[in-house]
Amino acid sequence: MDGKTLARLGAVVFVAVAVTATVIEMTRKEDAPASSPVRLLQPERDPLREGQRRCQQLGQQAAGDAECLRVWAETRDRFLGRTPAPAAPQSTEGR
Questions:
Q1: Structural domain harbouring 69
Q2: What residues contact residue 1 under an 8 Å CB cut-off, 6+ apart?
Q3: What is the domain count for the chain?
Q4: Is residue 63 part of a domain?
Q5: What phi and psi values does residue 36 have, to the nearest 5 degrees?
Q6: Gap between the Cα atoms of 20 and 40, Å rounded
């Protein structure tokens, strides 16, 4: 066999494999989920989300707002999956 015939044969085999794979993929049935899609329960009112919106509306003033700093810290902890550190008790006994 010369080179041209071998190249043509290789091209025909390649096309045949591609067509076969396409037909198999098109005839494959879609795997439908066994049950209806699960909806995540979201609380009707999320105080953290409301605090974020309030801070967003404050704009530049939010950088100095103590409540916004608390909201941002809680948001960061929630995003990173950390549990918030307990607030340090303020003792007035030693003063």
A1: 47-80
A2: 9
A3: 1
A4: yes
A5: -70, 155
A6: 41
Q: What angle do CA 74, 77, 81 make, to 5 degrees?
A: 140
86: tokens are 């307990």
Tokens of 16: 């045949």
Is the pLDDT score of 89 beyond 70?
Answer: no
Helix ranges restricted to H, 3-95: 3-27, 47-58, 66-80
> Which residues make Cβ contacts (< 8 Å) with residue 70, sequence separation at least 6?
51
Q: How far apart are CA 4 and CA 11, in angstroms?
A: 11
Domain membership flag for residue 72: yes
86 is a domain residue: no
Does residue 77 contact residue 84 with C-beta atoms inside 8 Å?
A: yes
Q: What percent of the chain has pLDDT over 70?
A: 74
CA–CA distance, 55 with 76 (Å, rounded to integer)? 14
The mean pLDDT value for 16-41 works out to 78
Task: Read off the tokens for 9.
Answer: 């044969």
